[in-house]
Amino acid sequence: MSTTHIKFLVTDVDGTLTDGKIYMGGGGEAMKAFDVKDGYAIHEMLPEHGVTTVIVTGRQSEIVANRARELGADSVYQGVGDKLAFLKTFAAENGVTLGEIAYIGDDLSDLGCIAACGLGGCPADAADEVKRRAGFVSAKAGGSGAVRDFAERIIKNNTTGETVK
Fold it and tell me: Which CATH superfamily hosts domain 8-160?
C-alpha cells in the first residue's frame, strides 16, 4: 500500500496551537499562550523535512500574526469562515491534492478538513466528534504539544511510509 507524501501542515489556532483560552481585558483580546514544543516543530522540524506550515483560523488576532512571524510559518490566514472551502482553494492554488495536506484542529469547524486531508489529527481535548473522525488523536492537549506530536507523525509518515489514515 502506498502512502502520500505530506507537503503541507495546516493547523488551526485556538484549541490546537493554544489551550483554547482567550484572555480578554477591557480593550479586547490581551493574551494567548503557545507551547514552545509546537513552535519548535513548526520552526525547525517540519521545514527540515520539507513540510510547509500554514496557519488558519476563524478569528482575527495580531497575537496570531506575531507568533506566526516568530515561528517562520509560511502563511497565515485569519478570519476564515469556511475552512474546508479555503483548504480546497489553497490546494488548487498550490498544485497539491488534499491527500498531500495534513490538518490538525480541535472543533466542529475543523471536521471537514480533518476528514478530507491525507492525514487528519486533533489534540487529546478536541470535541468528541472530531476525535472520532481524526486518524490521529494526540496524547497531548491543545496548546500543550499536540502540534509537535502530530508533526512527528507527519515526519514518520514521510520517511517510513507509515500512514495515519
Answer: HAD superfamily/HAD-like (3.40.50.1000)
